[in-house]
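Deliverable D4.2, example record:
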Amino acid sequence: MSDLRETYLKAIAEATDEAALEGLRVRALGKKGEISLALRELGRMSAEERREAGPRLNALRDEITSALAARKAALADAALDERLRGEWLDVTLPARPRRQGSIHPVSQVTEEVTAIFADMGFAVAEGPQIESDWYNFDALNIPGHHPARAEMDTFYIHRAAGDDRPPHVLRTHTSPVQIRAMQAQGAPIRVIAPGRVYRADYDQTHTPMFHQVEGLAVDRDISMANLKWVLEEFVKAFFEVDHVDLRFRASHFPFTEPSAEVDIRCSWEGGTLKVGEGDDWLEILGSGMVHPHVLRAGGIDPEEWQGFAFGMGIDRIAMLKYGIPDLRAFFDSDLRWLRHYGFAALDVPTLHGGLSR
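Output generated by the structure prediction step:
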């Protein structure tokens, strides 16, 4: 029996693949294997012979089984090591240029806007994209008969029959974030609210989902003069020019009073937009002093505090700055378009380093 043990242990140690190991297992432990046949012979032995031979045969069977399992694991480890050597990749090597990703212009412009307003002391506020009817309309002094509340303009969330909960919508602007920020922080406050918004519209300059950024500043002595300065500083920094002319035109928004559309002086010479020069005017945003009803909805006393608000389309100012002709292309998932208009992954906009390098 000792010869049998040495023979199989040596053969197992010298096996070079799993097929050879399987052959040895069958020869030793299969139905007609040598050790299996020897175990069957125990029935023909006397009780004294079985007491002597049985434990030795069972120990031999267990030892051979363990040796087979250990050798199989060793062969698998060796195969894995060989595969790792063959497939090894130095991750410290420079990335292949053709595989470098691009930052979407909307993401880049959002970062540019955030950097500019952060330098002026504005924090970033966020809120849910599914809003209650109250936050999206009522708190912003938008009356029940206003066209914006019609289903042809606003996406309402479906409600089952008999559901008495207040209606919810896909927010039509980021103004609800201003209400939530005032409720959470109180006054004084200075925030911008960038994010996705939704309206039922689709053409060259409108899409069902687009991006806005709105700003809010509330303090005791804020006036339209402060609003004009903030917007002038923003336009100069964003379009990277030294001088701008802004024109405020009287308008009407339910959430501001007085309200004004803001135009910038520009020229379209050669089909290229140049800000701060020329005889043309281009509308870029809406603004005004926060309506007292909106301050009350935010939990702020309009007898003690006042403020200004403004809002603009991120997609629109991205089109103007980077010469993108069609808003719908922002959402077409065309890699050729993104490679042309996209930004390098590490091109992080900063005021000291430049917004668009």
